[in-house]
Design goal:
The complex is a heterodimer. Chain A is mainly α. Chain A has three domains: about 220 residues, Cytochrome C Oxidase, Chain A (Up-down Bundle); about 240 residues, Up-down Bundle (Cytochrome C Oxidase, Chain A); about 60 residues, no CATH class. Chain A is about 60% helix and about 0% strand. In chain A, helix 2 runs parallel beside helix 4 and helix 11 runs parallel beside helix 14. Chain A is globular and about 80 Å long. In chain B, about 70% of the residues lie in helices and about 5% in strands. The chains are: A mainly alpha, B mainly alpha.
Chain lengths: ~600, ~240
């Protein structure tokens, strides 16, 4: 318990205010905009649109799995293409782009008290290159041979061979080119996010006063800048293997009775590069979710976040640890047992900072003034889902338990719970939370509650049964399971049940999209700070915030982001830009 | 660009030195690196990311080189030039390396004269750096041509492992692209210096940001990085 910094102790401005680019026309204001808020909406809209494609692909997969033999147009090749594109779109083009490009662009400048990102022009390029990447990806659906069906991990050698859909057609080439473009575009945006957080904060905003949302997005961006290079290199090398006939990843191989021209390459090398990117990627998606959910819980429980510093260091610790666990995706690839031991150990160590975060969320709720608003419902659902998904991670992180479980539906259930459903639930909660700031209106409450309950319960009805299927030995990535001994009749019923639930949950998302569009004009007026929150984005002069975010003067920060229910204060929240001492704050010294 | 590199404006008292200074900077508001402008911070972080790209390229090449069962061509013989009747190993690479390292020297001098507001010398040195960089790329093109005429292809070569040609063209090509991009930007920066853009704070054509002489230094960071990467490529590809 420390006295609040006296107003006169806030240091003077170190740099002059940034010069903003002022748009002259409709085009430069709304299309080729350099305003981070517009770019954020562009990112979010594009990610949502391509995400809908991935949702439809998951329906098609469930049609096949739930009712095998009923739908002739879902050939085995098509099924593999659906799997591949569903996975790649959801992980990269939806989750990464929405969390970092969408929420990062909108929230970072507002939350740290900046006029905009430090390099708005580069930020704009970032979006347009991302859009190009998405278009290249979509174009593969219309290319001869269709999109690649190599599985979202694109393992060579099969990814570029004849038997794989798109392997010797355009599919794999367009996929790799799209990924390379995505990484270039992301790097441009990511540099902006990092420099804005490090060098572009307002007066009084120390790193240890940042809302945890910013900490989550910032750490995830740093990780992405270090992890995406591995994917970039892997994509370039595979592109050369496919287009020029090099053999980086291709061993000597016989295809259809003929010896291929390739020889001497290392398929395992690709797996190392891919997972050196792929595992941090899990946390690139999870850390922003961690940060956002912390703020949602604190705001809607009217209570300061428990153990703020621990939360920050847990985020940083998870980020660092996630770079030394990648080979736990490769236990069955043929690895020295000592390596398996090492990677299992590091994997389980990650449970420590993660558990700290879960305890702190629960302790924040403890004796809080919990408002069961829609964002809060989603935040609570996240904690439960993340714990559930995390616990199955303990099974898969141990080599001896992983070996029988790997490549079964158990793995599918695990990663969908922990990095599919959990982050998506946070995205929903965050949209319900910040939509009033973006549009000035609230989302419809009734539709929102309907959306929440169907999504939350439905997700469990989809993914819980999958654990059982996996334990029975049902393999993943098989489009047709009718003749397998592991598929008892009850397992088939379970599969049909999962599919029906998937359609219902998917339908609820369409209700959500309708709500998003309908509420822009018909939602209840929100006012500037409907949740009575402390962070700077709620203290803007206008709602939605105008060009330059804040009014004439940038806000000055006098306190941390979690002064809720401070004894002695008139209201149960004290915005970060309000000076003065009210009572015992829990801000760490 | 309105923001400046000036440090602790209006701050009272000296900044603590050493680790305490770093801790004080990181626990302060506004900026974590007190002397560093946005552009310079961005370049450093970009270079960190780029280091990982080159690191992955080199590690992948080394993995392929030690895992292939076909003998690796001997670089001393492959990269030898026949001058005056005798094969001199690595002579071209030595000259290329010398040229590139020299260009780092002229770059550093350009930065120096930039901060002294010496427009002419800065621009001339930047152009000289660009010329040395272009010479490097030109010699690389010569080297590629020579190897291609001798039968080296990305998918094979007359002397051994196919990964030799693949790694060579990929890594030197990626590095050569970096040098070429650097040459282009050196010419752009030289033009801005020559025209006095940084003296009058003329807004950039695309970004509409006002440039400053610090841009010469940021350009230099990139250039020195490209140089440094070449040293590693030289060591791991040509000398191994």
């Amino acid at each position: 318990m420390v006295d609040i910094t006296p107003a006169d102790a806030v240091p003077p401005a170190e740099v002059a205010e940034m010069e903003l680019y002022h748009p002259h026309s409709w085009w430069t204001k709304y299309v080729f905009s350099q305003d981070a808020k517009v770019i954020a909406i562009q990112y979010s809209a594009t990610a949502t649109a391509i995400g809908m494609v991935a949702l439809v692909l998951s329906w098609l997969m469930r049609l096949q799995l739930g009712f095998p033999g009923t739908f002739d147009f879902i050939t085995p090749e098509a099924y593999y293409q659906f799997i591949t594109m569903h996975g790649m779109i959801m992980v990269i083009y939806l989750l990464t782009a929405l969390f970092l490009g969408g929420f990062g662009n909108y929230l970072i400048p507002l939350m740290v008290g900046a006029r905009d990102m430090v390099f708005p022009y580069v930020n704009m390029l970032s979006y347009w290159i991302y859009l190009l990447a998405v278009l290249v990806l979509v174009s593969s659906f219309f290319a001869p041979g269709g999109p690649t069906g190599a599985g979202w991990t694109l393992y060579p050698p099969q990814a570029i061979m004849t038997g794989t859909p798109g392997g010797q057609d355009w599919g794999i080439i367009l996929m790799l080119v799209s990924l390379i473009l995505f990484i270039i575009g992301f790097t441009m945006g990511g540099l902006n996010y990092v420099v804005t957080v490090l060098q572009g904060r307002t007066r009084g905003m120390t790193l240890m006063r940042l809302p945890l949302t910013v900490w989550g997005i910032f750490t995830a961006t740093v990780m992405a800048l270090l992890a995406f290079p591995a994917l970039f290199v892997a994509c370039v090398m595979m592109l050369l293997d496919r287009a020029l006939g090099t053999s980086f990843f291709m061993p000597a191989i016989v295809e259809m009775g003929e010896q291929l021209q390739h020889g001497g390459g290392s398929p395992i090398l690709f797996q190392h590069l891919f997972w050196f990117f792929g595992h941090p990627e899990v946390y690139i998606v999870a850390l922003p979710a961690f940060g956002i959910v912390s703020d949602l819980i604190s705001t809607h429980a009217r209570k300061n976040i428990f153990g703020y510093r621990m939360m920050v260091w847990a985020i940083v610790g998870i980020g660092a640890l996630s770079f030394v666990v990648w080979a736990h995706h490769m236990y069955v690839s043929g690895m020295h047992p000592y390596f398996g031991f090492f990677f299992a150990t590091t994997t389980l160590i990650i449970a420590v900072p993660t558990a700290i975060k879960v305890y702190n969320w629960v302790l924040t709720l403890w004796r809080g003034d919990i408002h069961l608003t829609i964002p809060m419902l989603f935040a609570l659902a996240f904690i439960v889902t993340f714990v559930n998904g995390g616990l199955t991670g303990l099974f898969l992180g141990n080599v001896v338990v992983d070996v029988p479980l790997s490549d079964t539906m158990f793995v599918v259930a695990h990663f969908h719970m922990v990095m599919g459903v959990a982050p998506i639930i946070v995205i929903f909660g965050a949209i319900y939370h910040w939509y009033p700031k973006v549009t000035g209106r609230m989302l419809n409450e009734t539709l929102g509650r309907f959306h929440f309950w169907v999504t939350f319960l439905g997700a469990y009805l989809i993914f819980f049964p999958m654990h059982y299927l996996g334990l029975m030995g049902v393999p993943r990535r098989y489009n047709e399971l009718t003749d397998m001994t592991v598929m008892t009749e009850s397992a088939h019923h379970l599969n049909s049940f999962i599919s029906i639930m998937a359609f219902i949950v998917g339908f609820a998302q369409i209700v959500f999209l309708f709500n998003l569009i309908w509420s822009i004009r018909h939602g209840r007026e929100a006012g500037g700070n409907p949740w009575r929150a402390t962070t700077l984005e709620w203290q803007t002069a206008e709602t939605p915030p105008g060009h330059g975010n804040f009014g004439k003067d940038l806000p000055i920060v006098y306190r941390w982001a979690y002064d809720y229910s401070v004894p002695g204060a008139k209201e149960d929240f004290i915005p970060q830009n309000v000076p003065g001492s009210f009572g015992p704050s829990r801000e760490p010294a | 660009m309105a923001e400046t590199t000036l440090t602790h404006i209006g701050r009272t008292g000296p900044r603590p030195a050493g680790w305490q200074g770093i801790a004080a900077d990181w626990s302060s508001d506004q900026r974590a690196f007190k002397n560093v402008s946005w552009g310079k911070a961005m370049m450093w972080i970009f270079l960190l990311s780029d280091t990982f790209i080159f690191g992955c390229f080199l590690l992948s090449y080394m993995t392929d080189r030690i895992s292939t069962r076909v003998p690796w061509p001997n670089p001393s013989e492959v990269f030898a030039l026949r001058i005056g009747g005798s094969d001199i190993p690595l002579i071209l690479i030595a000259i290329m390396t010398f040229v590139l390292i020299s260009s780092s020297g002229t770059m550093a001098m350009a930065v120096n004269f930039g901060y002294r507001r010496d427009r002419r010398k800065t621009a001339v040195l930047l152009l000289l750096t660009a010329a040395l960089g272009a010479t490097f790329v030109g010699m690389q093109a010569f080297e590629w041509t020579k190897l291609i005429t001798e039968g080296v292809r990305p998918w094979g070569n007359p002397w051994g492992a196919a990964q030799f040609g693949a790694s060579f063209f990929m890594i030197t090509g990626f590095h050569g692209t970096h040098v070429s991009i650097g040459v282009i930007f050196l010419i752009i920066v030289a033009r801005k210096v020559w025209r006095g853009d940084y003296d009058v704070g003329r807004p950039g054509f695309f970004t509409s940001r006002r440039g400053r002489y610090e841009n010469v230094e940021i350009m230099g960071l990139y250039w020195h990085f490209v140089d440094l990467v070449w040293v590693f490529i030289f060591a791991f590809f040509y000398l191994w």
